[in-house]
């Protein structure tokens, strides 16, 4: 008889005992037997169902099933009733984080303090919330309490990703390698390794790193994004689009994914698809210059001159160094027959920002001819 079966016998022999019921529920939760645990809760006497410990485990079942609304309702009621235990506060903040109510999640975390490994768990969750808010320095500061223990590689990997998002590839790489030295499957550290390789145009190393991440984290949006960018670097636009579409499903809140997908669609001559992707990016951040530059380029490629010029103005006001607005300007100059000026605009981009994602003038010119073939 396995442990779950033994606990079930104990619970059956004393159906009014909340401790025995909770022990059994915990065993099933660890084993992933969520439906079995829920059935047991619903079959328990109503006096047990209303106990905080049982309600807490019901909320955990809801979380695992992806029912964040039910989990939040159950946990908020427990917190309001004075049940401010570590588990209740952590799970409620996590559910709110997953639900996208980030400020509320941070407020929830303030209800509890912790020590030892619990402090590391709370620090990691707070850092992830701050990361989602793009408060990168604050997220790094939040990880300070994690100095040792089983969660250290996770903290190092997350810190590496934060340094990467701040543009400090040297510190990001060093921290990622420390994490991978202890845990070769650490998610964020693997993302950093792959991304740094991608930015260095080491395609084989980048692909290997991202595929390794996906072997253990198949829902990693940033790994799918990295593989998509790898495919773009190799010129395999069709595969890149497929990979980036997968990335957009996994992390629809990630601005860069929608931009990368829009560029794939542009390179395929799919202006309507590109416009939809830029619209998704715009819904996330209305002040990002490259999104307005993307709108400008779509308008320019469609021959919508006035709309393109207006979008170029908005884009360059928000980001004077933005690439997409410059590509749009080049297309507008090309429409006027000012070929050398159009080429000079793009040559300036290439000289200023060489590397991944920079398109040469001839490519932009061919793209214009693809979507607006000459009569």
TrEMBL record:
SUPFAM superfamilies membership: HCP-like (SSF81901), TPR-like (SSF48452)
Family matches, as InterPro entries: TPR-like_helical_dom_sf, TPR_rpt
Entry superkingdom: Bacteria
Pfam families in alphabetical order: TPR_16, TPR_19
Protein name: Tetratricopeptide repeat protein
Organism expressing this protein natively: Dyella acidiphila
């Amino acid at each position: 008889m396995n442990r779950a079966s033994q606990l079930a016998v104990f619970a059956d022999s004393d159906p009014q005992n909340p401790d025995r019921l909770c022990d059994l529920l915990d065993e099933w939760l660890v084993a992933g037997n969520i439906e079995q645990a829920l059935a047991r809760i619903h079959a328990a006497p109503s006096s047990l169902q209303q106990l905080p410990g049982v309600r807490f485990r019901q909320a955990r079942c809801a979380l695992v099933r992806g029912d964040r609304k039910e989990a939040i309702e159950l946990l908020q009621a427990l917190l309001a009733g004075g049940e401010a235990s570590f588990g209740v506060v952590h799970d409620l903040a996590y559910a709110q984080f997953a639900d996208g109510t980030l400020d509320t999640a941070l407020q929830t975390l303030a209800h509890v303090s912790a020590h030892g490994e619990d402090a590391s768990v709370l620090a990691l969750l707070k850092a992830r919330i701050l990361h989602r808010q793009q408060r990168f320095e604050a997220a790094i500061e939040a990880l300070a309490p994690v100095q040792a223990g089983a969660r250290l590689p996770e903290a190092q990997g997350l810190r590496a990703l934060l340094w990467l998002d701040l543009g400090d590839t040297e510190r990001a790489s060093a921290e990622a390698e420390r994490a991978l030295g202890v845990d070769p499957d650490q998610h964020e550290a693997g993302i950093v390794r792959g991304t740094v390789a991608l930015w260095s145009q080491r395609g084989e190393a980048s692909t290997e790193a991202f595929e390794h991440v996906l072997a253990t984290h198949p829902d990693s949006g940033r790994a799918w994004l990295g593989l998509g960018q790898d495919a773009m670097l190799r010129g395999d636009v069709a595969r890149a689009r497929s990979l980036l579409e997968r990335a957009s499903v996994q992390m629809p809140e990630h601005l860069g994914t929608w931009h990368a997908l829009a560029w794939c669609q542009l390179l395929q001559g799919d202006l309507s698809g590109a416009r939809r992707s830029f619209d998704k990016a715009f819904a996330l951040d209305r002040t990002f210059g490259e999104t307005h530059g993307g709108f400008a380029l779509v308008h320019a490629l469609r021959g919508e001159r006035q709309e393109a010029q207006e979008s170029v103005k908005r884009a360059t006001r928000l980001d004077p160094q933005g690439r997409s607005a410059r590509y749009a300007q080049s297309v507008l100059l090309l429409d006027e027959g000012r070929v050398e000026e159009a080429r000079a605009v793009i040559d300036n981009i290439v000289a200023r920002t060489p590397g991944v994602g920079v398109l040469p003038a001839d490519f932009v010119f061919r793209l214009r001819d693809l979507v607006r073939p000459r009569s």
